[in-house]
Amino acid sequence: MILSRLQILSLSILCCGLIVAAVPQWQNSTDGRQYLIEGDQNYNWFKAFHECARRKLQLVEIDSKEKNQALIEVLKPLFGDSHNLWIGANDEYNRDKDFKRPFYWSSSGQPMTFSHWSSNNPGNDQQDEHCVHMWKSKPDYQWNDHHCDTPRFGFVCEEHHLKADLTKMMADKRKTATETSIKLYEEYHRQQKLMMEKLENSLKEIQNIETELKEQLHNIHTKLEFDINHALAQHQREANSVVDDRTKAIRNVFADLTGATTEISMSVSKEMERVKTVYDDIFSI
Ligand SMILES: *[C@@H]1O[C@H](CO)[C@@H](O)[C@H](O)[C@H]1NC(C)=O
């Protein structure tokens, strides 16, 4: 059996592919994006699409000059000036030969607005070039439309746009949540400060009332004390004068009594003298 040159080439590719199991590599782009890049020239467009999808990724969608330029900067150190790599665009099997027939990004379904076509492309050769790839034969990774079932290119995957949307949505929600909690926190603090001020004012008011009450009580106390002392003194004076009066009266009675007693004793002794004289007369006989 004689093998053609092409068959020998295919076999050698098959052999080496088996021995050195090629693994697509992640690469970082200067614009913050990350790409999973398969340089091996073994894939038709559908297989490339599925290789991305199985990893929850999508065949790359290049929708701006900036993204295209940053991706080229990633590819140049890996493959040099250009390489055959499938990207995620097709023309929905349009048979128009029209250079300007519309193309679409297959994962998002969005019409292609930015493009990086090589000269005279997309040509739709044999009306059967419906898938888009970066073309090794043109510098700077310019694009070409080609038969989708050509199994001879590598591919570039990127984060699935739904995941990117979800990540952005989550980031927005997180931002909103953070802002809301900051606002709530500030409002809580404001309210707390107000409450503290109110509480402090109330406490001050209570202290004022207490001080006032103390003063009033003190005044009442002082007045009561004064009144009681005054009344006591008055009573004392009254009592004293009553006692004085009684003492005087008793003293008078006593003096009268003393006078009377003296008089009586004097008259008794006078009488005794007289009786003695009488007795002396009688017993001197
Ligand atoms: C890409 O960047 C990430 C950090 O964002 C880092 O962990 C990773 O090693 C980088 N990969 C390459 C190939 O430089």
SSE layout and pairings?
Layout: H1 5-19, E1 25-28, E2 34-43, H2 45-54, E3 57-59, H3 65-79, E4 85-90, E5 104-105, E6 131-134, E7 143-146, E8 153-159, H4 161-283
Parallel strand pairs: 4-8
Antiparallel strand pairs: 1-2, 2-8, 3-8, 4-5, 4-6, 6-7
This protein binds 2-acetamido-2-deoxy-beta-D-glucopyranose (NAG).
Pfam family, one: Lectin_C
InterPro entries: C-type_lectin-like (IPR001304), C-type_lectin-like/link_sf (IPR016186), C-type_lectin/snaclec_domain (IPR050111), C-type_lectin_CS (IPR018378), CTDL_fold (IPR016187)
Signal peptide: 1-21
Provide an overview of this structure.
This protein is an alpha+beta fold and 285 residues long. The chain has 2 domains: 25-159, Roll (Mannose-Binding Protein A, Chain A); 160-246. It has 4 helices and 8 strands. It has helices at 5-19, 45-54, 65-79, 161-283, and strands at residues 25-28, 34-43, 57-59, 85-90, 104-105, 131-134, 143-146, 153-159. Strands 1, 2, 3, 4, 5, 6, 7 and 8 form an 8-stranded mixed beta sheet that branches. A hairpin with an 8-residue loop joins strand 6 (131-134) and strand 7 (143-146). The protein is rod-shaped, with a radius of gyration of 64 Å. Mean pLDDT is 90; it is low at 1-20. Bound molecules: 2-acetamido-2-deoxy-beta-D-glucopyranose. 2-acetamido-2-deoxy-beta-D-glucopyranose (NAG) is lined by residues 26-28.
Fraction of helical residues = 55-70%
Reported for the largest beta sheet, the result is:
8 strands, mixed
- Name the structural class: alpha+beta
CATH top level of the largest domain? Alpha Beta
Termini separation comes to 218 Å
- Rg over C-alpha atoms, rounded to the nearest angstrom: 64 Å
- Number of β-strand runs: 8
Number of helix segments? 4
